[in-house]
Amino acid sequence: MRGVVFTGDRELEIMSFPDPTPGFGEVVLEMKASGMCGSDLKQYRRPRGVRQNNGLATAEGPVIAGHEPCGVVAAIGPGVDPRQARVGQRVMVHHYQGCTSCNHCRTGWQQLCQKTSVKVYGNNAHGGHAPYMCVPANTLVPLHEGLSFKAGAAISCGTGTAWGALRRMNVSGNDTIAIFGQGPVGLSATQLAAAMGARVIALDISPQRLERARQFGAAETINPSNVEPVAAIRELTHGLGADLTLDTSSSPQARIQAIRALKVWGTCCFVGEGGEVTIDVSPDMLRRQATVIGSWTFSSVGQEECAQFILDRGITVDDLFTETWRLDQAEEAYRLFDTQTSGKGVFLL
């Protein structure tokens, strides 16, 4: 089979790999949809010859990209519990693998494993940008017939990440939430928070993304390149500030604005990877009783809950995708995605 490999310096290759065979406790998936995520761009842009695995174990040899996999179980290896997988089953993948036995792994948070080097599929282990993918059966999350494979791909990272952050903040219909950045994760957060009943203020420097945020349920939009965003948020909240703020952009400027736009006793959450922010602790946090948290993706339990919420509320997650691609179009797909002016892309297989 052939799979997409990021080779560095904004280049990729479609390389040949052996068709996978499931080992003990593993399954092989026939891929149906594999989403493109903003965190792919870190590997896509990295200097050639330099691996950036964020402290993860370094893979041996080229690695197939794609950590938003969704497909159908095609083959099952020995030792797989029939309750975990069956041939023909529609599934998503929780794209992490730890020791499987520590408290974090057993509660669905394998990415937080403290006992072994974590595998991240599409990063230091083969991902979903290929016709087939081999994963442990314990990483599978069922995909309901009422959800498309595209929706499953979104839930497998970007939309699931938004869900995890919103649940960490206990968003409700009483809240006004300001969401900084309306890329795929931010737009997912806007869609989900609106469905939870919150009043959403969406921020982005792209007029096109702000228009999409309106379509996805934002009550108000702010372009920080046109107005001072903290003042604008306070004006929209009777001078108090937002109950909750969420930064999906990784921008240091947006992050400090997200903290300063909070009301007294407000909560700010960061989900954007990497980067730094400088906080003046007393005025920014202590004297406003602010809470600042980080949220790294979601558990496998949360992934299934997110899918069920989307199904029950009839949320059109498919509308997140502005482009669909074939694998042989990967070079063009990532060149466009790298501009960060479009929406979300997905490979359909």
Automatic annotation (TrEMBL):
GO MF annotation: an example: oxidoreductase activity, acting on the CH-OH group of donors, NAD or NADP as acceptor
Source superkingdom: Bacteria
Pfam families (UniProt xref): ADH_N, ADH_zinc_N
UniProt domain Enoyl reductase (ER): residue ranges: 8-347
PROSITE patterns, per the entry: ADH_ZINC
Cofactor dependence: Zn(2+)
Keywords: Metal-binding, Oxidoreductase, Zinc
Similarity annotation: Belongs to the zinc-containing alcohol dehydrogenase family.
Name assigned to this protein: Iditol 2-dehydrogenase
